[in-house]
Prior knowledge:
8 helices, 3% strand, elongated, binds zinc ion
Amino acid sequence: xxxKSYHSESWRSILKVxxxxxxxxxxxxxxxxxxxxxxxxxxLQLSKxxxxxxxxxxxxxxxxxxxxxxxxxxxxxxxxLAMQRKLAxxxxxNSRGLYLVNRCILCKAAVETHQHFFFQCPYDAAAWQxxxx
Length: 133
Ligand SMILES: [Zn+2]
């Protein structure tokens, strides 16, 4: 079955996964064999299927500090983006075509870059001093 414009988004997603599975396994027989290997006690183990499809990156040293049960998921997400330098600082937004006045939102005295925002801003240093005390 080909994807049609009138198909629902959910059905398109299912067909997309089917096509990706066929591409990764080579043919329908291999795809069926893979799915059979993911069945345990009559139930499909979605974690095994998901593991096949997810992108696997290099494990970084800080992963356990950021992603653990003691940290709120929202905070983990923000720190994860910060550690990868993907947090939307003004210099990054400007490089994506949003032309904003580039001043640090905290101290208003310097250009807002990742380095300044997380390591050089005097406002951050004062906040950290206060937290550490
Ligand atoms: Zn600043």
